[in-house]
Amino acid sequence: MLDVEEVIHVEIEGSVHVFTLAEATSGQLATYAVSFAPYASGGGSIRIDKRRGLADLEGQLRRIGILDEFLEPALRAVRTTGQTDIPRVRLTPDEIAELGL
Fold first, then answer.
1. pTM (2 decimals)?
2. Which domain holds residue 35?
3. 99 with 91: CB under 8 angstroms?
4. In this predicted model, what pLDDT tens digit does every residue of 50-82 receive, in sequence order?
């Protein structure tokens, strides 16, 4: 049986979802929602982290650990379609909490 310390360090695999909540206006940056959906989840509610502007969104995706080879296409998709999914992301429960996901 795993002890508490081992459970905290177990990685959870899922997808990071990004979508535009509000488009940029003359005085406001666009607002984006970032969420993490574990594959093993039985459904239910997910936490949404709000980001203002592409630079803030990019910073959060880098903190999550998204590599440049996946980051650039994801940001391009958000700019052109308003959303993107980044599959096969692994985070520990601590990382999920620290990132607000």
1. 0.84
2. 12-41+53-98
3. yes
4. 999 999 999 999 999 999 999 999 999 999 999
